[in-house]
Amino acid sequence: MKRIAANKKPIAIALLAAACIGGFTYYEMTSGERSTENAYLNADVVPVASLVSGRIIAVHISDNQHVKKGDPLFDVDPEPFRIALARAQAGLAQAMQNARQDNAEVAAMRAQVEQTTIDLNNARASYARDKELVAKNFLSQQSADDALTRVQNLQAALDQARAKLNKALSAPANAQERADVLRAQAEIAQAKLDLEHAHVTASVDGQISNLSLTPGALVGVGNPLFALIAENSYHIDANFKETELHGIHPGQEVDIKIDMYPDQHFKGRVQSLSGGTGTAFSLLPAQNATGNWVKIAQRVPVRIALAPTDAEHPLRIGATAAVSVKLQ
């Protein structure tokens, strides 16, 4: 009998533990709050990069400095872009000069066509007269043949002049519509844009972070150089179990405790719920259809907008926190 009683004791303990866990879970699900300590402070981070390649000639900021929108950050050597702009402007001037020359050539070709037409008409009249005189034996046949040859030559010259005129007229009469002019104008616009991008300013109010940029460094297009943490964009990413999401929706008030300020409570509001679990968007998502499978409750990120804090409680990205969502 003692052995039987001894065997029942672990079973009773296990049942009691299960009942406690079930009761706690039921309490959490039916109480007025949902809580988790799997929460981290985050913010909108702008990776700052150069839009042009070149050598850094000036850095106007220091690491962890607070900047305002439009404040200068750094300068890339603008001289190559000034040279490119001057070259593009020279190209436009050449294109405009070519357009004027083409217009002058069109006028000259028109005059040539008109003059050749007059000469051809005179040659035809002379040939007609020569034929009559040859028929009356007042001129030799050779004279008529020479007149005919002149008519034929002038006809060929007129055809050639008309072809050149038609080719010249195929180009746009308006210089602003010519391909070389448009190309030169586009090169000027690009050169001006590159020159403007050589001076980099802050796109938002925020704090500089992870800065290691120094004058003399060579930078490439699109390579992140440092980060700009946008001001008033701090929020909490709270990872609730999928079984705890029932009752949580945007707009609910949230009580927040950040570990770096253990005696301070912060206020927030549920902003949105992720469309998938954290593992669904990981670099190597779980392959549940292969191998030995063990069911594990997944966690779903819930974004919580954080109310602005005072200067005495500066926030840090990545700081741990605990949140309690008020369901009512």
Q: What is the first-to-last residue Cα distance?
A: 53 Å
Provide mean pLDDT, rounded: 83
**SSE ordering:** HEEEEEHHHEEEEEEEEE
Number of strands: 14
The proportion of residues forming helix, as a percent range, comes to: 40-55%
Oligomer: single chain
- Residues in β-strands, percent: 15-25%
Would you give an account of this structure?
By secondary structure, the chain is an alpha+beta fold. It has 3 domains: 31-43 and 232-326, Efflux pump adaptor protein, beta barrel domain (Elongation Factor Tu (Ef-tu), domain 3), CATH 2.40.30.170; 46-78 and 197-230, Beta Barrel (OB fold (Dihydrolipoamide Acetyltransferase, E2P)); 80-193. The chain contains 4 helices and 14 strands. The protein has helices spanning 2-30, 79-135, 141-170, 179-197, and strands at 33-42, 45-49, 54-59, 66-67, 72-76, 199-201, 206-209, 218-219, 224-230, 235-241, 253-258, 265-273, 299-306, 320-326. Strand 11 and strand 12 form a beta hairpin. The two termini are 53 Å apart. Mean pLDDT is 83; it is low at 1-5.
Topology (SSEs and partners):
Elements: H1 2-30, E1 33-42, E2 45-49, E3 54-59, E4 66-67, E5 72-76, H2 79-135, H3 141-170, H4 179-197, E6 199-201, E7 206-209, E8 218-219, E9 224-230, E10 235-241, E11 253-258, E12 265-273, E13 299-306, E14 320-326
Antiparallel strand pairs: 1-10, 1-14, 2-9, 3-5, 3-8, 4-7, 5-6, 7-9, 10-13, 11-12, 11-14, 12-13
Helix pairs in contact: 2-3, 2-4
